[in-house]
């Protein structure tokens, strides 16, 4: 780890055992059978412990959408052309994408960040252009990024978390957009978990069976090419990741270090989360997992993180959309914990 990346190892605050005990006691006094709200009770207790507060809250909420292009698209691993990345970034910033609709409906902030696409987005209102390069290199032919590029992308995520902290944000959702990024995420996940490509590679943007098999072959080639990087998550991120994936890693770590809860999205976001936790295991406490993606590799990533997602809707859109869907549950867990009457307050025999 270079000096410029020493911040990655900064500690994440530990949950408060006293706050957890107080929250558990309150849950047992609310006007309901003990445990009747199931996982919403344990979620509220966990949030209270992390925030060291008897009244956990998750608002304000910020969604950070990181975009980047991938050189591995040259290997014909996507059902869509690479030009779709920039087109979709424009659509997201213009309010027409799923995550745009969800952010409005949920009253959440939405920041769109170009980490390195092949198009010029400087004229697009609502896009923050911080690109560290015109897309990554082809990970099946060599390292996806230079060390300077991965440091820059990590820094983009860190800066996004700092802006959120400055706005008083309590919960952050990290989204991503980039044609080819399920290939990069699958390669990174395989390397982190020591699993073969065929176990984790899925259809991504909609590949058929033959397309998935070809994509797995490309990932297998990449894993063989970069085998010497095994064991070092930062090296694996550099060789197999993407600008937006690295930005997610940096954002997650900075959020945990700054006491901001993270609601993790699907396959790509969870690959970034696993990488971040391998770099700094203390981050794990600050990660909530929103949904089970339909991408076949997501289950293995969740198992590696000992994570049980809140929802399973068969989604695989990305953009942070699955996490946005789960946000109301997290809000309701807090509302129930904070405002339900106790037996004593309601004059009900406990």
TrEMBL record:
Pathway: Nucleoside biosynthesis; alpha-ribazole biosynthesis; alpha-ribazole from 5,6-dimethylbenzimidazole: step 1/2
InterPro entries noted in UniProt: Nict_dMeBzImd_PRibTrfase, Nict_dMeBzImd_PRibTrfase_bact, Nict_dMeBzImd_PRibTrfase_N, Nict_dMeBzImd_PRibTrfase_sf
Keywords, sorted A to Z: Cobalamin biosynthesis, Glycosyltransferase, Transferase
CDD domains: DMB-PRT_CobT
Gene Ontology BP, a term: cobalamin biosynthetic process
Record-listed E.C. numbers: 2.4.2.21
Catalytic activity: 5,6-dimethylbenzimidazole + nicotinate beta-D-ribonucleotide = alpha-ribazole 5'-phosphate + nicotinate + H(+)
Transferase among keywords: yes
Keyword Nucleotidyltransferase recorded: no
GO MF: nicotinate-nucleotide-dimethylbenzimidazole phosphoribosyltransferase activity
Active site: 319
Matching Gene3D superfamilies: 1.10.1610.10, 3.40.50.10210
Top-level taxon of the source organism: Bacteria
Family matches, as PANTHER family: NICOTINATE-NUCLEOTIDE--DIMETHYLBENZIMIDAZOLE PHOSPHORIBOSYLTRANSFERASE
Function: Catalyzes the synthesis of alpha-ribazole-5'-phosphate from nicotinate mononucleotide (NAMN) and 5,6-dimethylbenzimidazole (DMB).
Family from the record: Belongs to the CobT family.
Protein name: Nicotinate-nucleotide--dimethylbenzimidazole phosphoribosyltransferase
Gene: cobT
